[in-house]
Amino acid sequence: MAGLATAPTAGAGTAPGTAAAAPTAAASPTVEEQRLDRAAPQEILRRSGFDSVAPRFARALGDADSYAEAERLVDRQGARLWRRAVDRAQGRGPAGGDLSRDDDRPLYWARLGMTREIRSWEPEFGLSDSRRARLLDTLERTSRGQDTVRYPHGRNVRRILVTGFDPFTLDRDVRISNPSGATALALDGTVIETAHGPARVETVVFPVRWQDFTDGTVERTLRPHLPHVDLFTTVSQGRVGRFDVERTNGAWRGGFPDNLNVPVTGTVPVTDPASQPQWTSTTLPYAAIVAAPTGRFPVYDNTTVTEIPAGGSAPVVRPDGPTDGSTARAGGGGDYLSNEIAYRATLLRDRLGLHSSLPGGHVHTPVLQFGTGNTDPATGTVTDPEFVRNRLDIIAQARAILTVAADTSAAVSGTERRRD
């Protein structure tokens, strides 16, 4: 996922023409970046050929003789990393090693290698905190596919937008892969054939960090596209052995630590909090998705939430959704970042006036499990045949679920949603 519940199973720069702020010292690596030095991430990078990404980037960065040149370099190299990861996942170009092509982890660890290089870079021309932050933001955006969402013009191809997440809970097991991120890489730019014609899928990946969500990364990325797509699905890893279509999303952060080991508890922070609802709902065709034979994992319509009832003070689990006037404590997807991305995306849909016309919501994949005998991170290997098979099956079933959702939505609407 990027999380279910409290115990999950699984910048601005200097304006043109103004003087730059005084240069500052390089920053220390983040908690996320420090994990790079562990054996498993290094093996993942080596066995995919992505171990050369950060060193080459560092050399190129060292040759930059101005901030403008560095900006162009970071933009170009970030986009190149995303495209390389997508191409590898979809069988284009060299595999770079014996690690399965469907693996999302090389992208994650290579990106962290690049952000660590930016954080430690001290160019002769000087680099202010704000400009360093701007470079990091550019790299995050471009290497996650967030600025390369492109759909064909016209009414003959439907448009689907899908989001995934980075691996997480890495201090529990640094080998972890996230099937939602793998699904994003496998589906980006592909065409799904539906009973109502072709559907183009575009994908982006988000970090598992509370602060990025507070800063509006979800809304900034999705806002330009929601008015023009026919369907969207946020995806994350959820429960063992099952898919879930989450019916209701809650406006609450439950405090589980993110990939920086930062815990946050409280109401999901959004713009215009005075009009913020406690709950939002899926508009995906959940009944059709649950009924369809999409793959080997069962698919559930999950209606459970945790709320504080109106006038109450203690959380109550409700199997059939929230009651009137209640306060959210967990959506169907829990109280971590998977619930939050679902809440933010569907709230944005509603604030754009698209609730009745745009199918969208959240799908939880099964937990991606290592094979029998390979479950102990202290002694286990970074991959195994069952691990790969599980990930491929999850990706294939996610694609099938999207196909059902696109088919059903087209049949219900009867017309193409198009705002070119």
Automatic annotation (TrEMBL):
Q: Which InterPro entries match?
A: Peptidase_C15-like_sf (IPR036440)
Species assigned in the record: Streptomyces siamensis
The name on file for this protein is Pyroglutamyl peptidase
The protein's superkingdom reads: Bacteria
Region: Disordered; residue ranges are 1-40, 311-332
Low complexity biased stretches:
1-30
